[in-house]
Structure prediction request, 760 residues.
Amino acid sequence: MNAMNDVSSKVDRRADDVVLAVRNVKKHYPIREGVFQSVVGHVKAVDGVSFDIRRGETVGLVGESGCGKSTLGRCVSGLSDPTGGGVYFGLSKAEVARLDTLLADGSAAAQAELAQMERRHRIDRLEGAAQRHFRRNCQMVFQDSFASLNPRQLVIDIVGRPLRVYREASGDALTERVVSLLEQVGLGRHHLYRFPHQFSGGQRQRISIARALALDPDLIVLDEPTSALDVSVQAQILNLLYELQRDRGLAYLFVTHDLSVVHHMADRLVTMYLGRVAESGDTNTVFETPQHPYTRALIAAKPDLNDDEGRTMQALEGRVPDPARPPQGCRFHTRCAVATPMCGWEVDDVVRWLESSKGVFDALEGVDRTNAFDAALRFSSEAAARNLASTLRSDAIPAAMQQALEDVTVSGGAVRVRFREVPEVELTERGPGHHAACLINPSHSSSGAN
Amino acid sequence: MVDLPSPSRAAAPVVRDSAFRVRMRRVRDLTAQILSNPATVIGSVIILAMFAMAIFAPWLTAPNTPDPYQMPRDWAATRMPPGTPGYLLGTTNEGGDVLYGVIWGARMSLQLSLVVVGSVLVIGCIIGSLAGFIGGKLDEILMRIVDVFLSIPELIFALAIAAVLGPSFGNIMFALAMVMWVKYARIMRARVIQIKNSEYIDAARIIGDSKLNIYLRDILPNSFTPVMVQATLDMGNVVLIAATLSFIGLGEAGIAEWGVLVSEGQAGIASGRWWASTFPGLMIFLWGLAFNLVGDGLRDALDPRTESSR
Prediction:
């Protein structure tokens, strides 16, 4: 039948094919305020992310909650359209190289070729058969297995639905296909006529997986698929996913905050911080020689049975800054233990620091910004202004921040602060296929690692 | 639940379960749960009795000719007290049989509530679910219309419509439908928006199913609970409101309708002829009470917070 052809054609496909290429994807949500709902800013949930997913591999997408990983997962699966950049599906390795050349080339000829390529491969520009081809080949498993299954449908309807939508089977043939799918995920015929609420969390997640497998996709986006499960059940589901991948050559985008899970599952790792990629590379390489202090902090915070006794788990300190106004330079510098004066210290850092020292913050009346690095802070009294200026010159503030200060002058009730202007930190290559967005050279900072 | 693989299970013949059988079992379980509440049982019994009375009215009393919904007049037996042979509940000033009014009034109430609630349920659900599902400009326009209707007090609006169109039973039904559909549109829209944002809608989109299918298979089947509860409560409320409108003179004089009977009988209360108003009044009370009991029971049984347990 249909399915047989699909499987055989899959074997023929080149192993180094790129299933999906993410290029400079941005998802900005407008912040509206006031009577006329005018846009006063944007929450930059995802702010320029690029990576590839190759056939049969697992890419782990990790980060704290609020870093934009789930939003990116939704963009990749086509559930929401990116506000910038694009997600490209079904390109060969050569075509991806061509795509990158075209994206970098601004000429009219290149733009025309790019437009043509986007009509066939960019998922938010697809139509008709191409759209259906993508939809069939990119499925998703959600975190909440209860919420992602229609409570009024029976298992046979839930798992058989994709087959009905694409008219692959009906009647008894459909029932048999569903039974075979259920058996592949460790359930059986006797589960056909049950409602989702009659199953345990792990079993429900198996039903979700069976539904995702029904159309024999190339890629499944797994959005925290095990986060809501007990540890023992987690392991079962992870093993199931692993076996399915081995048997079918599936590619996974594994979105999670759990590094232990990713360590076991992922071939490659992408860590995200505040909508940008902090580090990406082979899982083993990243775990052995993490290049970004954020990745290092995540790994240090991961509980591990092999840890030396007496070694304390290190938690990341501080809060994730507001994604509507991400920090300059390196976005992680506000929480980084090894930050340098070049990491993007800015006026907002002074404001954030003031917020934690209440007495001075209350005296703050306003901030007149020239740009992110240069502003005058107005205070209600000159004393308060002098107080801040002297604090900024003392070592009460982080040394790196102090060194980044180029100018602190008091005039009347205002303090003018000017920091060194630095560009946003770009990803740089640290090894084969290993990239990190950090200024610090690893040979210098190894003492900072734990 | 966990299914342990056991030799006996493997050897046992496969049970030919079917979707129909499973759904019937679910209906049965749900009914059992609803009926586990004594108040709901009492309400259900009253409703069943009322329905039986309404349906079998022509066999319980000889229908008046030519119009069975008009009170029969026996000018030889006016103002008879209850217990008079042939007039178990007495007669009115005009010699109308109170028992006849009680029984045929049930038939009228049933018609009234089924027609009014049925039509507002259909209209409200269509408008509300489309507004919620499609959203955007359509939602804006429909909801502003709903706001206009909601800004006028229900009873006064019905009164105005009935007053303009003239006193008749049909106009009361029309007036009630006009004021009530907005409530259903509101409830349905809110529920549809809630369901629309649930993850199983995302799951259906990921499969690539059409909007129409998502609307029919995911949105609608999961959206009916709140309006069904409201409809049950309103089955009682419409009879109360219709009786109120009849009582203040917007009903058709002389028909076998409880509100009209109460209104026409009230003059006699001061002279000790309590029966002409009391028995129809008691019926209105029982009708309203029964549907409220069942409606509350349904609400508890179908509470979304406990829905996961079924």
